[in-house]
Amino acid sequence: MTEEEQREPSMPDREALGELANRVDQQVGLSIKNRRQQRGVTQQELARALGISYQQVQKYENGTNRISAGRLYILAKALNITVGDFFSEIDQPFSSKSLAVTSEDVVLTAKELNAVRDPRVRNSIRALVRILGSDNDPFY
Hints:
mainly alpha, globular
């Protein structure tokens, strides 16, 4: 073994740790959103239970704002789950393709698509969605 190999293993660099923290924030946020929707709780209802604005709940769910340990504990109690439930999917790879489509997403998208009057534009939008959802998606 060389002298370099005998040294203690180096810590990950700050950039790698930052990326990991961001990934965890996104995963926890997605877990909050999924658990909230599974229980039929709106963002407004959850916000009232936590004493915060629904915009803050949105930021938590998007992973934009980090959640303190104390707030995460209160959030778990409000959703009647354990804090650990928020981390149950952390080691699974995160990608936008793995995000679950909810019935709320389907209804909102259908309403928005229905508002497009030109059938050619609607067909183009559906074609775009089909391409973005395919395994051959050039953007991922």
